Amino acid sequence: MKRPTLKAIAKRAGVSVATVSRALSGRGRVDEATREQILRIAEELGYAPDMAARSLVLRRTENIGFLIHAVQSTSPHTFYGEILTAVEQESRRHRYHLHFATVEDDTLPSLIKENRVDGLILVGCDLSPSLIQSLKERRIPMVLVDNHLPGVDSIFTDNIGGGFQATAHLIRLGHRRIAFITETLNNLSFRERFEGYRQALEANGLPIDPELVAEGERGFEGGFVAMSRLLERARPTAVVAANDPTAASAMRAIRVRGLRIPEDIAVIGFDDDPIAVHTEPPLTTMRVFRSKMAVLAVARLLDLIKNPEQPALHIRIETQLMVRQSCGSPLTLS
Amino acid sequence: MKRPTLKAIAKRAGVSVATVSRALSGRGRVDEATREQILRIAEELGYAPDMAARSLVLRRTENIGFLIHAVQSTSPHTFYGEILTAVEQESRRHRYHLHFATVEDDTLPSLIKENRVDGLILVGCDLSPSLIQSLKERRIPMVLVDNHLPGVDSIFTDNIGGGFQATAHLIRLGHRRIAFITETLNNLSFRERFEGYRQALEANGLPIDPELVAEGERGFEGGFVAMSRLLERARPTAVVAANDPTAASAMRAIRVRGLRIPEDIAVIGFDDDPIAVHTEPPLTTMRVFRSKMAVLAVARLLDLIKNPEQPALHIRIETQLMVRQSCGSPLTLS
DNA sequence: TTGTAGGCGTTATCAT
DNA sequence: ATGATAACGCCTACAA
Fold first, then answer.
1. A117, B7, B110, B120: which has the fewest Cβ within 10 Å?
2. Residue of chain A nearest B52, judged by CA positions
3. B264-305: pLDDT as tens digits
């Protein structure tokens, strides 16, 4: 049994394909009796328009593309998985389908060249600006998620504000020697979180000590590496980690040296990753609204597809402090 | 600047669209000089065939669909994220594109009805057999990953063998009162792992004690709930968890009661999830080959697309014991 | 209200 | 070796 076509329905109903098309699409007048009959037959056959034929004539695919850099997609973080799932569900709610693709370099994804999508969600700040630029020149509707760049719509987290809040929390708890660790600073989000850390120290009259800043490496062991390096040369009383997996593996490095958390070193993370509740002790962190970003991004993208000529919007979402046990004394907060 | 078409190239080159099509596709003879000129122009314009037109005439989309049940996609486990990434990269290597979709009920995904994909990768064992059955009736090429069912190609993990090995490892270490915990038994993989546990006890002449088996709930807290229930009524010396997140949160429940790991209770997990190396102590677990499953699944699916009438293949992949510190005495192993 | 016909971009089958 | 031309399935004027 092959896929039913308009022609098949037309033959069964004894009308022309044009009438069937009209009946099913709802555009154009059709006799009520024949319309009902057509709908019945279509239902019976499980008819749905062939998308290739449809998009050929309509000049739209009703697909959107989810693009992410391979280094982020491959990483074991759950972060982008949650965004992906939310994007898919929101797209489907609007009758759009989702293409998932990872990119490794700056070559234009075939998704675009072959016209497989009407618009793009570009996720994460590891996608190169030059790729984004060439996409923009193609005038394909798109929105950046968890990233931002002048001239392109974006939905992102207030990383600077979050880094500031996290650091301010530690200062409020009495800490003065506060370190910052990250997998790498070669990443916009992490750099912004670092900037927030810097600003908080400055705003509180504390010195910025380069000895207290350490990079590790990409991946799940990044925090372990960064923290180990740091502890070889300095002894902070608290540390801000650029994300939760980094914080979690840094905690191992701290414990390996026989230090206690939070008594000897307080730790604060970033993201409110599911892992945060499973560290020992549970991790105080900055919550990032992943599915909120996803929902806003899909809404904005569909709007841009309908109405392409709009000034770029940049939507920044604030973070939220989640106090658990890795910084101690939650009671002193007001 | 709009997308270039065959016609545009033909006009520039002063030939017909048919010639251009032949030159680009490589099928049919074309004069070497004109072929080169055409390739040059196409390159210059950044031409790529419009996929809607192409798949309309070729009757194939060069897309495959990645289907997963919403409950699994939403879960914070990184498990399926790794499979997704591997499937995408392997598909792309073969010039196929990937549709990502979650399903919540048994209605036929529109991906299929609208002919948007040539085949499907069905991931996880929460997709209902009745949905799979109706897909099969549509005769759409598909392969199950991390799931199996008679009559449909599948690539899956040897869960029974893994459960057996895990339990046997504990027995080898001298344990006699070994518990089994899981988020739920309403899931094929978890039931199979339980079955492996059961068989190992039986094979070693140990009794199966229902008091030592506990279910928790779906999600990251499942292990905590299950372990708490268990400890209220029994006191095992070791516990097999149906997966690593379950094991990780069970460890919290154990510690909350002042018990030590592995001295009071040894813990073994399943999956070798990235989290396993971050628990305290690091988790001994059964490694599952996620990207291997993905690669095999894509290869098998593309073969089925080319050549649909084949007997179903069922590929089972063994697991591998990863000894870390949560069971103690790694030295006694030979 | 309904049918006829043209066209979307590509491939494939014919002639030439 | 190349060029018309007819599909593929759908949509939409326009005609009846």
1. B7
2. A52
3. 999 999 999 988 988 889 999 999 999 999 999 999 999 999
One-letter amino acid identity for A264? D
Closest CA to the C1' of C13: that residue is B18
Q: What is the CATH number assigned to the segment(s) A6-49? A: 1.10.260.40
> A159-288+321-332 falls under which CATH superfamily?
Response regulator (3.40.50.2300)
Domain locations in chain A?
6-49, 63-157+290-318, 159-288+321-332
Q: Report which secondary-structure segment, H or E, holds A39.
A: helix A32-45
The predicted-structure confidence for A77-134, as pLDDT tens digits, reads as follows 788 999 999 999 999 999 999 999 999 999 999 999 999 999 999 999 999 999 999 9
Query: Is the overall model pTM greater than 0.70, yes or no?
Result: yes
**Does strand C come within 7 Å of the CB of B24?**
yes
- Strand D, nucleotides covered by protein (CB < 7 Å): 1-5, 7-13
Alpha-carbon span A156 to A158, nearest angstrom:
7
User: Is the bond preceding residue B76 a cis peptide, omega within 30 degrees?
Assistant: no
Interface of A with B in 195-234 (CB under 8 A): 220
Nearest residue to nucleotide C7, by CA–C1' distance, is A57
Class of domain A63-157+290-318: alpha beta
Closest residue by Cα to residue B143 from B116, B124, B162, B115: B124
A280 touches strand D (CB under 7 A): no
| Secondary structure, 3-state, chain B | CCCCCHHHHHHHHCCCHHHHHHHHHCCCCCCHHHHHHHHHHHHHHCCCCCHHHHHHHHCCCCEEEEEEEHHHHHCCCCHHHHHHHHHHHHHHHCCCEEEEEEECCCCCCHHHHCCCCCEEEEECCCCCHHHHHHHHHCCCCEEEECCCECCECEEEECHHHHHHHHHHHHHHCCCCCEEEEECCCCCHHHHHHHHHHHHHHHHCCCCCCHHHEEECCCCCCHHHHHHHHHHHHCCCCEEEECCHHHHHHHHHHHHHCCCCCCCCCEEEEEECCHHHHHCCCCCEEEECCHHHHHHHHHHHHHHHHHCCCCCCCEEEECCEEECCCCCCCHHHCC
Q: Strand B284-287 to strand B320-322: parallel, antiparallel, or no bridges (unpaired)?
A: antiparallel
Domain B6-49 and domain B159-288+321-332 have a common topology: no
